[in-house]
Amino acid sequence: MVQLDFQSFILRARVLNLYRQALKIAQRAPVHVRGELKQTIRQEMEKNRDCNDKQKIRYLISEGLERVKGLDEMLDMQGH
């Protein structure tokens, strides 16, 4: 296993938290789109899995949080 410095450890925790949060919100989506939505979330995470640029990771976390917030609000408006 690779040793992480403290900053990398914190970033990794934030990424995992974002992923869990996104999947939890996706669970509220209508059944007919839920699987595709979860697959899209996973693909987005996998796409940047090997990124080691801490500044880019922070940007991606910020962007991801905005997208999750938008999904949450959209599901709320639809009554899910």
From TrEMBL:
* Entries under InterPro entries matching the protein: Complex1_LYR_dom (IPR008011), Complex1_LYR_LYRM2 (IPR045293)
- What does the UniProt keyword field contain? Mitochondrion, Transit peptide
Entry's Gene Ontology cellular component terms: mitochondrion
Q: Specify the Complex 1 LYR protein domain's residue ranges.
A: 14-68
Q: Which domain of life is it from?
A: Eukaryota
UniProt subcellular location: Mitochondrion
Q: What is its main location?
A: mitochondrion
Q: Pfam families from the xrefs?
A: Complex1_LYR (PF05347)
Q: Which family does it belong to?
A: Belongs to the complex I LYR family.
This molecule's function is given as: Involved in efficient integration of the N-module into mitochondrial respiratory chain complex I.
Q: What is this protein called?
A: LYR motif-containing protein 2
Q: Which organism is it from?
A: Arabis alpina
